[in-house]
Amino acid sequence: MVKAARLHSHDTPLVVEEVVLPSPGDGEVRVELAFAGVNPVDSYIARGRVASDGPMPRTVGGEASGLVDGRPVLVTGAGLGSTRDGVWAGAANVPESAVVPLPDGVDLEVAAAVGVAGLTAWHTLHLAEVGPGDRVLILGASGGVGLTAVSLAVALGATVWGQTGNSGKVEAIRRQGAHEVVITDASGLPGALGDWSPTAVIDGLGGGFTAAALSALAPHGRLVLFGTSTGSTSTLELQPLYRRGLRLLGYGGLILSDAERRAGLTEALTAVADGRMQIPIDRTIPLDQVDEAFRLIGDRAVTGKVVLDLR
């Protein structure tokens, strides 16, 4: 018997209860779980906005850290929490393909946030081909992905500006290495940037921010969109896209192949281990308070990641 956060029906609180954990099946391993990352997609799953046809009841959670035969590992991907039981539990049977060994120097609490925030930051910055001399604007820089991306972009040699709508989160962005922080909504973004013209934008906000950021991009600039937390529609002026040679790119972590996910996770974990990428943990709360974790994320009351203690 293990304690697990279970989804019984959409739009109702998760139920933390004891469930029977059978022996691992073919191609599976049992993981003694320690910590789990909480992400907006988990709340979307609980509401039925994502994976609404997944089995029920089921354990939720798509990323966690723990031990396999005493070895520290990250567990993520392979439909965990969406098409099969997830990892918000004391232990879980997971596909071998979902298990990635942790390098020395990555503790279990931080590792629990690498599967989404770390992987997204790594892939979006590399999709944008960020390197020394780039001027990078991170939209939503106080979020879990945003703060992580700030630290990695700085390590890649870029000059980094972060955007936030909350003045109380400016110092957290600066601690990640941002050279400047602008406090603005979408309509005020061009004015807040002034003459500073980014060569790359990492955009998890969408809505009006995407159009505003594209208008500010330098010639041959790149914008990578990975989320639409402020809106899923935007009106774009198309002529600047081709006249200035801009590139608008999309990143979708859910469509990564197992090989792409594993390669990215290996790179992201190495970056965490050697200090190039930092994933701030805002708070760690017990599994019994999982719905409080959803509230904190929904209210944008955290700066960085929320992690569940599964022990």
Topology:
Elements: E1 2-7, E2 15-19, E3 28-38, H1 40-47, E4 58-59, E5 63-68, E6 71-76, E7 91-95, E8 99-101, H2 108-111, H3 114-127, E9 135-138, H4 144-155, E10 159-164, H5 170-175, E11 180-183, H6 189-193, E12 200-203, H7 207-216, E13 222-225, H8 239-243, E14 247-250, H9 258-273, E15 281-286, H10 290-298, E16 305-309
Parallel strand pairs: 9-10, 9-12, 10-11, 12-13, 13-14, 15-16
Antiparallel strand pairs: 1-2, 1-4, 3-5, 3-7, 3-16, 5-6, 6-8
Overall domain count = 2
CATH homologous superfamily designation of the largest domain: Medium-chain alcohol dehydrogenases, catalytic domain
Principal-axes geometry comes out as globular
What is the gyration radius calculated from CA atoms? 19 Å
CATH architecture of the largest domain: Alpha-Beta Complex
- The secondary-structure class comes to alpha/beta
Question: Which topology of the largest domain does CATH recognise?
Answer: Quinone Oxidoreductase, Chain A, domain 1
Report how far apart the termini are: 13 Å
**Which strand-content bin applies to the residues?**
25-35%
- Briefly, what CATH class of the largest domain? Alpha Beta
Main sheet specs: 7 strands, mixed
Report low-confidence residues grouped into runs of 5 or more: none
Mean pLDDT: 95
Helix proportion range: 25-40%
Separate helix tally: 10
Write the H/E string, N to C. Answer: EEEHEEEEEHHEHEHEHEHEHEHEHE
The number of distinct β-strands equals: 16
